[in-house]
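Deliverable D5.2: sample structural annotation.
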Amino acid sequence: MTSRNGINSGGKGCRAKALIAVANQSDDPLLEVNQSVRTFVDHNGREHRLSCHRWDELDAETQQWIQDVTEHNMKSFYESSSCGWNRSQKEKELRHSTARHLVVRSQEDNRLVAFSHFRFETGGQESECCVYCYELQVEASHQ
């Protein structure tokens, strides 16, 4: 059986995968979000702008900043764990075909201040849809 949105509702696992496929095809998951959410004021009164991108839509400067702020914030944590730090593995995660990046820029000077790397995936059970947050990194000056 197919629902109004064209998603096969046969099994719960199939439905979840179909919903995730639809989410992954969306050019801008924030499109349906109220415009007031795309701009906000932080606890210090600074205005910021939120945007969502796939990795290949980001300019080289933003890609480099994402890699650098992740390394700056996380390298010592990874090095103290059994995993160790592996920059190329982290870059591979960030560039994954279904990866999305919420990017926060200062309204005042367009400076990059934070990002979140997330993906639409199935949860612990195949029938669950979830948004999995892989990274949430904030520039030291805005923490």
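Annotation notes: The chain has one domain: 28-142. The CA atoms of residues 18 and 95 lie 22 Å apart.
The annotation will be released with the project's public dataset once the embargo ends.
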